[in-house]
Amino acid sequence: MSQFKDLTLQGLWKNNPGLVQLLGLCPLLAVTATVTNALGLGAATLLVLLGSNVAVSLVRNHVANEIRIPVFVLIIASLVTAVELLMNAYTYDLYLSLGIFIPLIVTNCAIIGRAEAFASKNAVLPSAIDGIMMGLGFMLVLLVLGAMREILGQGTLFDGADLLLGDWAKALRIELFSVDSHFLLAMLPPGAFLGMGLLIALKNVIDNKLKQKQAIEKGSIARARVTGAAQ
Amino acid sequence: MSFKIASSPHQHNQRSTAQIMFMVALACLPGIAVQAVLFGYGVLVQLALAIVTAWCSEALVLKLRGKAVLVRLKDHSALLTAVLLAIAIPPYAPWWIIVIGTAFAIIMVKQLYGGLGNNLFNPAMAGYVLLLVSFPLQMTQWLPPLSLQSIELAPWDAVCAVFSQYSCSGFSLTQLQTSIDGVTMATPLDTLRTDLSRGLTLDESRQNPVFYGFAGAGWLWLNLAYLAGGLLLIQQKIISWRIPVAVLSSLFVLSAIAALATPDTIAGPLFHLFSGGTMLAAFFIATDPVSASTTNTGRLCYGALIGLLVFLIRNFGGYPDAYAFAILLANMAVPLIDYYTRPRTYGHRTRSELK
Questions:
Q1: Residue at a domain's end among B122, B147, B172
Q2: Which of A147, B104, B261, B353 has the most C-beta neighbours closer than 10 Å?
């Protein structure tokens, strides 16, 4: 149970792929112009991450060490292809609006990173949990960034959610304010970088506050860990 | 008896940062006056808004960072940023344009990098680029000079126009931009760019009334006023002559060559020197002591790079004027330029002696 709790904390906060490891920044910055896009890509990444962690963990004892990276990439690529075909079939409009970034999930460092650092060394269940939590952490960052940019950029939330969730989701669209001229910067890539920087700063502020409050035991080194939870 | 101990350089002039910043802002006054007389009083409203916003945002961030507020406000650097941004944007842009731009310049570009002296980029120009990228429509609505406007603007119309986008008597900005013939008028650079993209030649485009003289109605005087202010700054040894001279001469040489090669599509050097923001940028903005190059050779390279970028973007890029982009790009190159142009320190051997 404590391992589960630890994996959750690592994935969602302490070792968050978006905010701490800074992995997968390309999709993170490119598709977060609206919450819907962020949710779509986040869900796709979560699925691939879960699948790849489970598959890698299953084959970890049968793959020679020297060829493990090509094998991992093959596994990830086939999973991404499957997800891409699924999105093409069921959420076609979203598939069009995400475009190249769905196939590019293959190159998302967060996925190969987890496969190499965690799944290739752990049993199936912890690997699956790790995949889910890392995927959720990534998706949360995407969602927050997407919400910030959508609100600043066009004053709405969940615009076009029906592309992902079906017709009923049109009711989800919230119009917070309407202006004649949109704040284009928030929707353009520089806005994504600025927003990302602010989010990381915010996380550091919160961490520092927590640290001061608890006056944690000495010797804890605040350092981004890319290699996964120590075992 | 006590000895005063100071580190090198031992030669001082007694000017403080605050005095320098304030002198630069003062030297903008002739330009501001000309702009107010020729283009209407909108610029004064923008100045007031910008200065108030700059002081408020500077005070807010300093408070958050736990620094002494008043001491740093008194160095006038926020004031100067506000002034430069306010005279760079269209005088009748809506009030929130200048508020967003100034707040971004002070908070994000200056204070988040560590305050005065630590910012990589020129705050005023970064604010300008933010506005130009985010609100292209509002940022390109320059009214023609008052003498060309078909509708008379009273002084208080400036306030109405900035806050509501309508003059007090109810004319919209688009109506104000329209000449007696019903043609919408823009800045000379903008007009030239549109005409050239429509396939007109330079001479055909020049028939437009916004081209009065060789630089465009009003713009010649505006640039001359900034030139005068800039020369005063050089005479007072507040800015080095190297950056403005390098900017202007590289722009002059490049546009002279290009205009000789293709006289139908590229305007001559005098047009480039006295249109748009050339003098303002060359003397007041590119010379920012924080974000510009600091070595003598480096300043020449830095200025020449700005001139080159402006020439390229004005003639082949996507925007009619280009100083903000050129200066930001050159700011990025400054560490490299400074690294390769470090002067020989006294007593050390020159590079050729080392070989």
A1: B147
A2: B104
User: Are the beta carbons of B134 and A184 separated by less than 8 Å?
Assistant: yes
In a domain, A212, yes or no: yes
Contact status, residue B87 vs residue B39, Cβ threshold 8 Å = no
Domain that holds residue A10: 1-224
In a domain, A230, yes or no: no
Do residue A185 and residue B133 have CB atoms under 8 angstroms apart?
yes
The distance of B114 to chain A (nearest Cα, Å) reads 14
Q: CB-based contact (8 Å) between B136 and chain A?
A: yes
Model pTM? Answer: 0.84
Give a yes or no: residue B353 inside a domain.
no
Could you read off the pLDDT of B178-208 as tens digits, one per residue?
666 656 667 888 888 888 888 777 777 777 7
Quote the domain boundaries for residue B297: 186-338
Q: Is B62 on the interface with A (CB under 8 A)?
A: no
Query: Mean pLDDT per 10-residue run, chain A (231 residues)?
Result: 79 82 80 85 90 91 88 92 90 83 84 86 89 90 89 80 71 73 81 89 89 68 56 44
Q: Per-residue b/e over B270-288, b at no fewer than 16 CB within 10 Å?
A: bbbbbbbbbbbbbbbbbbb
Q: Cβ-count burial of B106 within 10 angstroms (0-12 exposed, 13-18 middle, 19+ buried)?
A: buried
DSSP strands (E only) in chain B: none
CB-based contact B135 A194, cutoff 8 Å: no
